[in-house]
Amino acid sequence: MEATETRTEPFVINLGPHHPSTHGVFRMRVTFDGEVVVDVEPMFGYLHRGIEKLAEGRTYTQIIPLTDRLDYLASMTNNWGYVMAVEKLAGVPVPERAEYLRVIVGEMMRISSHLLATGFLINELGAFFTPLMYMYREREKILDLFDMLCGQRLTYNYMRVGGVSHDPPPEFWPAVKRFVREMPGYIDEYEGLVTTNEIVLARTKDVGVLSKELAINASASGPFLRATGVDWDLRRDDTYSIYDRFKFDIPVGTNGDVFDRYMCRIQEMRQCCRIIEQALQQIPRGEFRARLPHLVRPPAGEVYGHIEAPRGELGFYLVSDNSIAPYRFHVRPSTMINLTTLRDLTIGWKLADLIVIFGSIDVVLGEIDR
Amino acid sequence: MKSEPEQKSKRSKDKKRVFGAGIARGLRVTMKGLLGRAITTSYPEHKLVVSKRFRGNEFVWYPARCTGCSTCAKSCPHGNIEVVTRRGNNAYEVEKFEIDTGRCMFCGLCVESCPYDALCLGRGYELAKYRRGDLVLEKEAMQESEKRKPSGYFRPKIEKTLPAQTLLIERAGRKSRKKKESVP
Amino acid sequence: MAPIQSAEQTVLAIRPEGLPAFWPADNPWLHALVFIVASIAFALVMVIVFIYVERRGVARFQLRLGPNRAGPEGVLQAVADLIKLLLKEDIVPRLADKVVHLLAPIVATVPAFMVFAVVPLWGDGAMLADLNAGVLYFIAISSFGVVGVFMAGWASSNKYSLISAMRGVAQMVSYEIPLVMALLGVVVFAGTLSLNGIVDAQSIPFALLQPLAAVIYFLAMSAEINRTPFDLLEAESEIIAGYHTEYSGMKFALFYVAEYGHAVAGAAIFATFFLGGWKGPVLPPVLWLVIKMLVVFFVGFWARATLPRLRVDQVMGLGWKALLPLAVINVLIAAVEVLFWPSGTTQWLLVPINIAIGALLVFLWSRTVSLRGGRVEVRTRAEVKA
User: Fold this and answer.
1) I need a labelling partner for A23 at 20 to 30 A (CA). Which of A256, C144, C215, C292 fits?
2) Strand pairing report for B136-137 and A36-43
3) The model's pTM
4) Per-residue model confidence (pLDDT) at position C3
5) What is the pLDDT of residues B99-128, one digit of tens each?
6) Touching check for B34 and chain C: CB below 8 Å?
7) Which residues in chain C are contacts of A355 at CB distance < 8 A?
8) Domain residues of chain C, as ranges?
């Protein structure tokens, strides 16, 4: 009998832009051999709104609501990064109390963002929404507090050049204190639900390993970078605002796999609670907003301001021509640069792993497409 | 990178668990969830109180206070506010005051910039419309009424009169000792 | 032990003692008609009950309220969904294989209800057919559902559906074996292949006498009916809705009914084999069966509310490396016990022994079998070209 040669034929699937697990409208052109990923070609731009160009036609204050719409799961830190860049450019001093308020809301934003990141990661592993719903519960509490602070739940528009827009109402403080006190208990609950689960371990350990070298070469940042073992956090290594006054650890992973990324985020939430606690103790009374003219008119020049946003280094590059609007406005999106490693992470893994690895990068399309 | 033997020792340590122990731990957590109370509410019957500074869907405009200075129109990032004035007796008369809420992103910059407290954000959130044109608010429609209450966003005087916001942390938080918290 | 029935007995072997006196036991046609209607009605009602219980139950696990609008406490939600689906447009993809596309939901649904022919639902012997080869019938019918899944996946001309269909075939074929092996342990103890005989033989529920078999059967059953953690077929986060991505309207409703019909059948079979079926004090037999089915189903959706899903190769690995050898060992132990242990009152002594053996085996396997890793070396297109 003649032996016939059997071979497999690779086939292409357009994963997205309409797919439950693409975090919005991301599209991957994936070549599969059976279920094994052979090639990944990311395509994005479906959510492009031209924010960088829009910003050039608006005053410095009017850009703040636009930055809300970059990384819409961490609007506070977007506001913060932008106003810091403008303050640097215009040389505006920020009152003490405003800095503390910024740290408190910034760290709460980080908790909220990490909650969603881990929640959706577990959902992509196939859990039927339960861990996600538990994490939503705590995120809801944070959003309630932000709502109390500035009247919105998603697009805060809270920071202003030279401070913040509002002083918190008196009922804000007991609620924050209660939240910080209870949060570690809830994190323990998530860990009980997820961290020791054998199925999660089997699905995430040693999956999608990012090497230190590749992470640095791709200029990755945030928990995605720290999971590989690179100890780099702008809050400590390029201190901005008043982060040098707080004691906190920076969790670092060892393997750079999906599980380490998850663990980094979980540990970081605990550290956020620590920072908020210290900030609540130290916060002084006083002005929360510097007295400035209605229109900011910075001197001609350029500036790059960056902060450690929940998803990594978020930078704003501004060029001023001494008018009321920036001449050039550019965003360094943290997740887009992290996403450049996608192909190296996923090749050789299965379809299910592709989704999980993509989820562990934790992208937000509003920031990638801008 | 960790060296190879270190990785191996880490792996073998993980293996020493009995398969099912972690799953049982997770099952216990969800069982606690089952026995606990739901954190959601049935919406149309049970409504939550929105924030005092809520930036709601309708604007409230006070014609007596408005001088037609158009600071709000200038501060709007999208240029949604249209103000037309006519010279009147010793003051400007506002002929037209329109806000296109179809393109509004409720940033509140107009309310923030108003020097005479003549424009406020509203507290409503159930205002879906069938036509895009209905979203353009005209000055007659924007005045305060029984259904249209101003929010306390950048209006501290109004803020003081509003009811307290429902907080999830008070409904679904852990039971804790009542303690007086200081206000910094 | 119940005597093994001889092959000469009629297929419709009716056992009159469980039926009322006026029952026309000598008229097989009437008997068949009544029981076919009754079984299908039972199954459909249980499908609605299961859908309601799961949706409300999972919602409570997730701190939500769940559907509570249609009817008092939302009990009519399934009916409302059904009406909505009936009125929806039936979309068939242009490139679909139309005939197969139409037949697939029917092929997937029918076996779920056919299983109830051999399950003693209403009491001792009150069932459509007390087959002396009931277990074989159940195994043959229940594995037929995968054909519908594969037809749907193939006919939809959608790559996600095709992946799902391939996963389904691989998963169902490999979990069929531990499932049968687990049942074999029970059959060895009961000494009969008739489901009614198996219920009769359970003075001690087989879940206690055969704990390992119960666990293996539960896992294999979860894989057979694609429930978490083995719901690879409709892994929403990966392949949208799997094999029924391209289905809408009534055809989708049929798949939905099939999914829950299989769950009802699986729960009924588990209750019959391991929990003593209709047996129980005070309450009528069918109520006992329903209670036991709900208990089984509760464990199922409790797991669904908690666990993520395994990857396709891990599912295969678990099936072949863990469940199959454990099931075979379990059959061996059961056979030895039946041969050498004196049957009678001392049988309950086997309960702690078997639980200990099961725990020991699970412990040993969790030390040796690992599901980690799974990266495959591939050559990218550029490398192939070079």
Assistant:
1) A256
2) unpaired
3) 0.85
4) 45
5) 888 888 888 888 888 888 888 888 888 778
6) yes
7) 237-238
8) 7-372
